[in-house]
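Case study.
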Amino acid sequence: MKKLAAGIDIGGTNTVFGLVDSSGNILYKDAIPTTKFLLPEDLVKAVASHIQKDSLLFIDKFELLGVGIGAPNGNFFNGTVEFAPNLKWKGIVPLAKLFSDQLNCKAVLTNDAKAAAMGEMIFGGAQGMKDFIFITLGTGLGSGIVVNGQLVYGHDSFAGEIGHVIMFSDGRACGCGRNGCLETYCSATGLIKTYQQLIKNDAQTIDSKYIYDQAQIGDKYALEAFNFSGDILGLALANSVAYTSPEAIFLFGGLALAGDYIFKPTIESFEKNLLRIYKNKIKILPSQLPSNNGAVLGAASLVFF
Amino acid sequence: MKKLAAGIDIGGTNTVFGLVDSSGNILYKDAIPTTKFLLPEDLVKAVASHIQKDSLLFIDKFELLGVGIGAPNGNFFNGTVEFAPNLKWKGIVPLAKLFSDQLNCKAVLTNDAKAAAMGEMIFGGAQGMKDFIFITLGTGLGSGIVVNGQLVYGHDSFAGEIGHVIMFSDGRACGCGRNGCLETYCSATGLIKTYQQLIKNDAQTIDSKYIYDQAQIGDKYALEAFNFSGDILGLALANSVAYTSPEAIFLFGGLALAGDYIFKPTIESFEKNLLRIYKNKIKILPSQLPSNNGAVLGAASLVFF
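After joint prediction, the assembly is written out as follows.
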């Protein structure tokens, strides 16, 4: 029997889930609104019922090996989601146990960026790499660091918050309550803020898609906004190399899809700011995970690792 | 037969070596000037001859298990010292093989700060810890990062250069050719520079011992110099936590011996700059390695790990 993993990505808005085989093929995928469920138990029951129903399609040929869960503020050691600001659930939620009990199989949980990093290693561009850094450039900046073939969890499971490295002590206010965090500059939110400052207009209608479109027609402020983000990201990644000396750094998420607009200034700043011993040997690459399925693949990869 | 390790610390000025048992007792220690030997082969022969002669004292009761070597620009993967700016030897020197051949036992080599970090884990305050960061505050700032019980080497063995994280892009010139590296502020050299700037006097006679003595008699510039170093070190260490979330950070080396003068401002700045999830749970501690024997113990610990 071929073995399948369920990959579940808990987002602030939607929970996306699917069944994935060990080669990374998604055999089935669905989503339900996270916000509809005031209690985590009810979300778990709803997701499990979908998975069980749809698993029937494969039941003769497949076995459900386990459930992998990517969730904001996910604690790998305890299988819990802890005080997640973007979820309605209060306190510490034992989400892995809830899924394990409901689906009668093992359940592995980690935070969403670490799950995607694992996905890159198992199914994506980091296959065969033992040391790499995975960066997701979305609303914020998430990261997963792999050292010697293992995700870095640290003593409390909360390692890998590169988005909250302070770049400028007197910099932009961050949602975390401090100032100058990397993600206030290098994320969709950061790009929008930079562009708004450049054009002296903070209209709510300006989103990263708009800035990308403006860049494509040669708007100098849009290009400058990308360059500014790339400059800071390149410096931050050069500093990151001084910690774990990765073979490559992968960029994932909406901002990474802007291609050269973000990669070119990032790589230029990166090489300029690298310590000499690291120069010209560390690759900055686009993630090889499909942008629409990366979260589910990442979550499922936790089961196969 | 009790097993002994030879620990060898290759310094720019002196090479210190000793025989260490598995409990961290140094049974014998000696030093010879590194600079006296134009060829690494000759240094190896001289050190080996000392060790062989002095091992005779223990020969009935002990066995030489191996040689551990801490050296600037040491490459753990290849056992080589590579383009070390503070040594007279050119290019890539296969120092581990030279020692292994000469002493007819296994030889393990890494850079000096990583060796000391390993010493902290095997013989010092990090015993039983799986995630910690070791910082040596000497002429420069060296570091060793331990994740999940393993030293972080990265893809090329050169991970762990926290001293070369750029804190301010337009900051002080660093020996590495860039500007604003952490070690230009947080090291004996950095402290001296700060003090000289504060008193507007760059006399060569000002050393860190002098600044420490001035602090002890309440000199406000000396105290301010320590506070300035601690402020920046605390911020850098708070950022470091966002990478590997260690249980503790150990400070070793001359500047760490200044006690509260450096620990107090460092810890204050550290807690102030930590992301909330890390606050009040990560310890900044003085190294428990003896300052005069830390390098030899660290080198020897490579054999016992």
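Observations recorded in class. Chain B has eight helices and 13 strands. The longest strand of chain B covers residues 62-71. We will return to this complex in the next lecture.
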